[in-house]
Amino acid sequence: MSLTRSQIMKKYNCDVFKDFGFDDSHKYWVAHENQNNDMKFVYADGWTLKELVEDIEETIRKGL
């Protein structure tokens, strides 16, 4: 089961929004961890919310 945007924001204490890439006009999902958290990750992105969660979890596993 995939998480919704709201569920991701609550679970990982982050802001989630759509943004444009630097070299094209395609939008993708971006997550920035809130600064009042214990900094498990700083930034993650993905074309889908599922990819975004995978990137967040991979970054947390690797450490900052």
List the helices and strands and how they pair.
Elements: H1 5-12, E1 14-20, E2 27-33, E3 43-46, H2 49-62
Antiparallel strand pairs: 1-2, 2-3
Task: Explain how this protein is built.
This protein is an alpha+beta fold. It has one domain. The protein is 34% helix and 28% strand. It contains two helices and three strands. The chain has helices at residues 5-12, 49-62; strands at residues 14-20, 27-33, 43-46. Strands 1-2-3 form a three-stranded antiparallel sheet, covered by helices on one side. β1 (14-20) and β2 (27-33) form a beta hairpin. The radius of gyration is 11 Å and the shape is globular. The chain starts with a helix and ends with a helix.
Write a brief structural summary.
The protein has 2 helices and 3 strands, in the order H-E-E-E-H. The chain has 64 residues and is an alpha+beta fold.
Count of domain modules: 1
Q: Identify the overall geometry.
A: globular
Which series of helices and strands comes N to C? HEEEH
Using only CA atoms, what is the Rg?
11 Å
Extended strand count: 3
How many H/I helical runs?
2
User: Could you describe the largest sheet, including whether it forms a barrel?
Assistant: 3 strands, antiparallel
Helix content: 25-40%
Q: Which parts are unreliable, with pLDDT below 50 for 5 consecutive residues or more?
A: none
**What's the mean pLDDT score?**
88
Characteristic terms for this protein:
single chain, 64 residues, alpha+beta, 3-stranded antiparallel sheet, 2 helices, 3 strands
